[in-house]
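so my prof wants the structure for this chain in the tokens format not the other one, which i didnt know existed until like an hour ago. anyway here's the sequence
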Amino acid sequence: MVTDVADALILNRLFRHLFNNGVILVSTSNRAPDNLYERGLQRDLFLPFISTLKERCVVHEIGSSVDYRKMTSAQQGFYFVGKGSSEVMKQKFRDLIGEHEAGPQEVEVVMGRKLQVPLGANGCAYFEFEELCDKPLGAADYFGLFKIFHTLALEGIPIFGLHNRTAAYRFVTLVDVMYENRARLLCTAEGSPFQLFNKIVTISDAQQMAPRTSSRSMRNDEADLCVDNELGFAKDRTISRLTEMNSKEYLEQHAAMLAAKQLS
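here's what i got, hopefully its the right format
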């Protein structure tokens, strides 16, 4: 998924260089070439790259109606919703750090920048949601964080909508980085993974909803509806990954990765 004009132009230059030097490219993508950077700013500058990609590569669609990430057992997770969830998560965090004392830490992320960690100990970091997703942070910052920490306790994930769309984008990126690093997530949230993104829809979804929402008596829960093709597309991956990250299988992978690092 390409969402930034700078990334789009960099991809164009990078792949042209690779192709010109005889590199054979095998890659995966969440989008077909024609749908990359769809409705993006100055997309006309990106279109030659799509043409080159289609000319140099054979595109295979590998589709399945089964989301295998959602087929795992989610009984071992640390995703807490409802009354008392904050204290339950804090106790889990204390259990994980053991005898270590949690305190503020500073992590160098990218280009000399530093990220302030409110509480950290024994490879575990504790953040309020706003501290990671309402501030101008990106994938590079999150990768820097998980070079140091293997576990994140995240307090107060909200329901996403039009009013906090930017935070939703950052949260999607955060989950992607955690998933790629097999990091462990403890969190409190205002709803299930599906409920968090219920107000994020694609243009197609919104058009199907139009007859229901055009009345003057629009329901309050639809007033914050966020129509965003990229976010509406990405939310399914995030919901799926959040589900898997709370599964027994994923947590076993996390433990194995952690053990391997400690032995190396």
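also thought this was worth mentioning. Strands lie at 79-81, 103-108, 114-121, 124-128, 151-157, 184-189, 200-201, 226-227.
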